[in-house]
Amino acid sequence: MSMQIRILPQTLINRIAAGEVIERPASALKELVENSLDAGAHNIEISIENGGINLISVSDDGSGMAREDLELAVQRHATSKLPDDDLLRIEHFGFRGEALPAIGSVARLAITSRKKGEDSAWMVKVEGGEKSPIIAAALNPGTKVEIRDLFFATPARLKFLKSERTEQQHIIDAVSRIAMAHPEVSLRLYAEGREILKIPSGDRMARMAAILGDDFAANSLELNARRDGISISGFAGLPTFNRGTAQAQYLFVNGRPVKDKLFSGAVRAAYQDFLGHGRFPVLAVFLELPPEEVDVNVHPAKSEVRFRDGRLVSSTVIGTIRRAMTDAGYRASNTVAEQAISKMAANFSGQTAYGYGGSSAGGFSERNSAGFFAPILQKSETIFAELPAPAARTEIPESADYISHPLGAARCQLHETYIVAQTRTGIVIIDQHAAHERIVYEKMKDSLASEQVKTQKLLLPEIVELPGGAADRLDAEKNELAKFGLVLEKSSEKTIAVHEVPAMLKDFDIRKMVKNLADDLEESGQLLSLKDAIAHICGTIACHGSIRAGRRLNIFEMNALLRDMESTPNTGQCNHGRPTYIELKLSDIEKLFGRK
C-alpha cells in the first residue's frame, strides 16, 4: 500500500509544537513569565484557577508591545530575541517563538499589551488556532496574557494531567525556581483569588530564605568561584541539613532553571562522601558561562542544556562545593540541636510542671524529667569517680581549660559512648565513634590522594560487553580510572578488557561495576560507581578502625578527640550524613527547665 507525503495543516503543526513545549499548566506559565523577564519586568503578578487548567494570567510592567509586534507575537517562529540569528549565542529566555502560537492552538489565548511611551493598548485573541483581529484595549504600560481552558482543543491531553493540587504545586515550584534566579523581580501568585506566594524583590539570600525557609540561611555555605570563564555562585546546604528528595535542589545556567543530568551528577559527586543513601542536599547553584559555551536549544521546553566542555563544568562544580564544605570544618547544622530539643520537650510534655497542679511555662513534670535523665543519673557516680582528682587536673591549662575552643572542654563520658564538653555558651554532646570514624576516613582519603591505589592484576582479563558507545566512553576515561586502580582498555567496538582492579575491591563483581560505570558516564559524566565502591570500603575500614562505642576514655583522650575534630575537615557529620555532635546553648537548656 502506497502512502502519499503531504504537508500537515498549520493548526496541527502548532498542536504538535504545543505537545513539545506545553507539557502541563506549569510549562505554559514558565513560558509566559520568561517573556515577562525578557521584557524587563520588575513586578509580575500571576493568577491561576483549577491548577492552571481553567485560567493562567500573567501581568507585568515590562516594556510592552506595539500593535505590529503583537501581530507577529502569535505567529510561529517569530521572535525579538535572536537579533543576530545566532543559535549559538542565546542571551534571552523565550527565544524560540513557539510558545504563544502553540498555546493558542490548544487553549483560549488573549494578549493585551501597551508599549511604554504609547497612549493605547492593543489586544489579540487566539482560540484553538483561530486568530481574531487586533482591537484597542485599556492597560497600563506592560503586558497581560490570559490562558483559559488549557487543552480544550486537545481534550485527550487533559487525561494525562494530575490533580488540581498537584498541578498547582508544579506551578509553585516553577515560579519559585524563576524567582530564585531573579531577586530583582517581585512575584505574586494567586490561586482562586487567594494569594499563595509572595516573593518581594531583595538580595539573593533573602529570596532563598523566602523559598527554602529561614533555616537555610543559617545552615548553608556560600559558593563563589571562577575558573576558565565559568562563574559559580549560590549556597550549598550543610550535609546534616538534608531532605528525603531532590526537590530542594535548584540549579541554574545563565539565569535559566534547568534539570541537567551532568549538573545534577556533579552535585551528587560533591556530596558523595557526606550523605547516606536516599538523602539529598538542599542547595541553589548558579552557573554563568559564555552563551556560546552552552547549548540551551536541546529541548523545546528549554529545561535541558548541553555544555561544550562538560568535564570542565563538572569538575568546577564539584571542586567549589567540596572546598566550601572542607572550609566549614567541623560545622554541623543548627537544626540538629533544634530537633534534639523538640524531642526532649515532647518527652516532658503532657504533665504539670514540677509535680504541682495547673499549667506552667515549663510544661513538664518532675516525674517525666527524672525519667528522661534516669540513665544519666544512674551512671553519675561512675562517671565522676573516673574523672581525674582535683590535684591531677592542674595538668590541663585551667586558664582556658579548652573552653575557648569551638567544641569546648571535655567534662565527662556517658555510657562509654558520648562525650559531654563545656563551651563558653553551653554544652556539646559528641558521639565518640561517629566522630572518630569521620577523622579516620578523612585521613584515609588524604592517603589515597597522595599515593597510587594498590591494584590486583587479573590472571586473565575480564571481558565486558557494553552497548552503543559505552566502550568508547570508558576508554576515554581510562587514565582517570587508572588513578583509582582500575586498569582497562577497549578490546573491540563493544567490549572492554579489564586487566587490573583496586586491591580493596577484588571481591566486587567487576563486570557489574564496569557496566555501572558506563551508565554513570552516560547519565552524568561522573565515575560515581567506582568512587562509591572505594568510599564504601574506606568507610568500613574507618568504622572498624575507630574508637568504638563502649570504650572508656580518660579526660585527655576526650580532649584530644575534640581537638582532632576541630582540625579535620568535614567532621560535623559521619560518613552517612548523620551529625557527630549536638550543641545546646545555655538559653536552650534554661528553656527546657522552665527558667525562660
Oligomer: single chain
Query: What is the 3D shape?
Result: globular
Number of extended strands:
25
Largest sheet: 9 strands, mixed
The helix-and-strand class reads: alpha+beta
Strand content: 15-25%
Average residue-wise pLDDT: 82
* Rg, Cα atoms, Å: 30 Å
Q: Counting H and I runs of at least 4 residues, what is the number of helices? A: 18
Q: Name the poorly predicted regions.
A: 85-90, 350-399
Span between N and C termini? 87 Å
Please give the share of residues in helix. 25-40%
In short:
With 596 residues, the protein is of the alpha+beta class. Helix content is 37%, strand content 23%.
3D structure, described in words:
The chain is of the alpha+beta class. 37% of the residues lie in helices and 23% in strands. Strands 1, 2, 3, 4, 5, 6, 7, 8 and 9 form a nine-stranded mixed β-sheet that branches. The relative contact order is 0.09.
List keywords for this structure.
596 residues; alpha+beta; nine-stranded mixed sheet; five-stranded mixed sheet; 18 helices; globular
